[in-house]
Every structure is written in C-alpha cells, then in structure tokens.
Amino acid sequence: MTTNHFVEPAPTPLALLLLGRGADPDSERGVECPGDLPAASDPGLVERARAAKAKLGERVFILGHHYQRDEVIAFADVTGDSFKLARDAAARPDAEFIVFCGVHFMAESADILTDSSQAVILPDLAAGCSMADMAAIAQVEDAWDVLADAGITDVTIPITYMNSTAAIKAFTGRNNGAVCTSSNAQRALEWAFEQGQKVFFLPDQHLGRNTAVLELGLALDDCVVFDPHKPGGGLTTEQLRAARVILWKGHCSVHGRFTAKTVAQVRERVPGVNVLVHPECTHEVVLAADLVGSTEFIIKTIEAAPTGSAWAIGTELNLVKRLALAHPDKSITFLDQTVCFCSTMNRIDLPHLVWSLESLVEGRIVNRIVVDPDVAHWAKVALDRMLALPGVAVAPKD
Ligand code: SF4
Predict the structure, then answer these.
(1) What CATH number is associated with residue 326?
(2) Whether 242 contacts 217, CB under 8 Å
(3) Whose CA is nearest to atom 5 of ligand 1?
(4) Residue ID of nearest Cα to ligand 1 atom 2
(5) Which residue, 96, 205, 220, 222, is the most exposed by fewest CB within 10 angstroms?
C-alpha cells in the first residue's frame, strides 16, 4: 500500500479569499448572518447538531456540496455537486426543510426545483459565489442591448453555467437559451449552435472557452470576452459580429488561482504525476494538464485510478483533502502549494448549521431562500432545456 503523501498546503496571508465580507443585500455574498450563533468553541456543537437533526427526523434533508468543510459534510444526508444536490432535493418532496450546505445560487436552484411548500435554507446568507456575483442581471441586460445594437441577438443563444444567479438563468430562459453544467457544457454548446450562429456564454469565461476550443474545435480567435465594466463590453461592433462565442468576463476565484507554472512545478516535485483539473481553470492550465473534467469526473477518475498512481488535483481543497484520505493507496496532492479553499463555501460551519437546525426545532425557519415566481418560471425553462439535451436527464452531473 502506498503511503498517503497528502500534505496540507502552507497558509499564506492571501490563502483564504476574502469573500463574504461587507453588507450588500443585492450581492450573492456580503450579507451578515442575522442569527444568534453558538460559539465556535462550544465543545457540544457536534452533539447539538446530532440532537437537532434527530428531533427533526424525516422533516429535514441536509445537502452537502463537495467543497464543504468536513464538520458540515458529517451531517449531510447526501453529498454532490450543485446540480445533483438540487435534483436530490427535488426527489425528497416529503422533506419540509431542505438545509443546503453550499452557496446561494445552489439554494436558489433547489428552491426552483422543489415544491413551494418546502423551505430551502442556507445556513449562512453570506455564503455566496464570487463567480455568480460577476454577472449581475442589470449588467447582462445592458450587454444584451449592446448585442441588439450590433444586430446579432436574433442569431445568438445565451447559455449560462449552473453557477449563476436565478435571475441570469431566467434571462437565458426568456431568450431561448439554456443552463449548462461543467459536464454537459459541450452538449449545451452544440445544441446552441443548432439553434443559432453564436453563443453568449455566462458567467465563466474559462468553462466557455475551454469547451468551445477543446470540445467543439473552435479557434481561440472565434471567442471574444465581453467586459461589463467597459463601454460596449470593450468590443467593437465588428468584433461582436465576427465572434462565434461571446464570453462573459467572469471566473472562479478559486480555480482561477492555478497557473501553468503550478502545473510545471508539481511535475518537477512529483515525477510521473497525473495532473487532473476542473474546466473552471484557465485555458493555459487546462492545456498543461493531463485530464480535465467536472467534480464528479474528478472523483470517479481517482476512484478508478490504479494503486500507486500519483495525482495532482486542481480544484477546491476540501474535496482534494477528502479524496486523499479516502484513497491512501494513491498519492494525491493539491495542485497549488498554498491553501485554496472557497471562502464563501467555508462560511457554512458547524455553528451556522447548529443554529439553523435548532431554529427549525423551535419552529422558526431561518435564512429561507425564496426565488421570485416569475424568475423561477423562466429559470426552470432554461433548466428544462438542459435536461432535454440528449443524455443529460439520464446522467446529471456538474
Ligand atoms: S468554488 Fe468558485 S464557482 Fe464554486 S462557489 Fe466557490 S467561487 Fe463559486
């Protein structure tokens, strides 16, 4: 048996991304939790969570995203990526309370896909997603106006990644587009090119570019980046008309930290290592890696890997740590040498989970996520279009 070589990356002042700060209620993040939370130092937290969950019994269903802390995952009824968890929630219509240990857009999707009588709860309202925050609905509507002025909206199909707000999903639904995940982005783009001549891809430029170039065979020059902070997106009318894919200037702050240099360094440190990364990484990182795929793909690849094989994984650190612990017969290392948690995901901790569960026991529903009915309707249209793509409904993954 191979010794587990997993070494916790060194913390640095910049290691934890400082998201979830401030107080902007229109943001995916930055909303202070209103609760009277138990102290993180309370030695009875685990027992309190266990007791509250037991009292709620079948009334509560706890979802844990792959990037959550171990202390939270320990109480999850199911784990998975965002889309799997939303579907898991929809498959439990008997559960009154869906406690979503993930981030805000995921809880929104669960609310859209579950019955209105079920309450979806996000234990900390500050658990947002910096990528989703990079595409505000007002910015996207302004961008659509720019595309209309260029005379291309009739031939452009919007596709949004699951990691976007409900309002952006509704925008794509209203404009003949669809949602995609990191595992079905290729099928979604192929479908879009059957409906129109161009794709407007939101909000992750890297997933859009990696899919268009590496899966569909388009040229890098076929893609342009629309910057919402520049007039006209920073593009000329000619550039918009010539482009096949218009990428929104958004990215994941966690996956965006990996560089081609980190790939080269790990190859030097670990001879024979296989580099496995998520498609939210930059194009240069994906090109330098051996394998690229969604969170579920990463998990399955490691499960199927031969004993003694060596892996460097470029995704969120909590997942990489759990994979290393679950597979001591393989050498698993984190792609970066510094800590790289998703700090907003990490806002869901044991005190917040205990507070939300104990509040439910006392008959108080806290931090309920409710999507506006009209937004929910159009977002579901876009989600249903994704589910109608060949093979997607059979094997949903993110
Ligand atoms: S890992 Fe990236 S995309 Fe996922 S929730 Fe965190 S910031 Fe958002």
Answers:
(1) 3.40.50.10800
(2) no
(3) 129
(4) 252
(5) 220
Looking at the fold, whether 186 and 143 belong to one and the same domain comes out as yes
Distance CA 340, CA 15 (A): 6
Q: Is the CB of 386 under 6 A from ligand 1?
A: no
Structure-token pair, residue 157: 């199909």
299-328 per-position pLDDT tens digit: 999 999 999 999 999 999 999 999 999 999
Structure tokens at 369: 């996520």
**Do 149 and 244 fall into the same domain?**
yes
Among 204, 252, 257, the mutation site with the greatest number of ligand 1 atoms within 8 A of its Cβ is 252
Residues 208 and 100 in one domain: no
Atom nearest to 132 CA in ligand 1: 8
Separation of alpha carbons 320 and 1, rounded Å: 20
Asked whether 340 lines ligand 1 (CB < 6 A), one says no
* Beta pairing partners, 225: 247
Q: Give the pLDDT score at 343.
A: 86
Nearest CA-CA partner of 119 in 360, 379, 381, 375: 360
Burial (0-12, 13-18, 19+ Cβ within 10 Å), 291: middle
The verdict on 233 and 267 lying in the same domain is: no
390 confidence band (pLDDT: 50, 70, 90):
confident
Domain containing residue 96: 25-128+344-371
In a domain, 377, yes or no: no
Residues 98-146: pLDDT tens digits?
999 999 999 999 999 999 999 999 999 989 999 999 999 999 999 999 9
Q: Are 353 and 367 in contact (CB under 8 A)?
A: no
Q: What is the per-residue pLDDT for 33? A: 62
| Residue 298 CB less than 6 A away from ligand 1 | no
> 379 C-alpha vs ligand 1 centroid, how far in Å?
20
190 and 262, same domain (yes or no): no
Look at residue 13 and tell me if it is in a domain. no
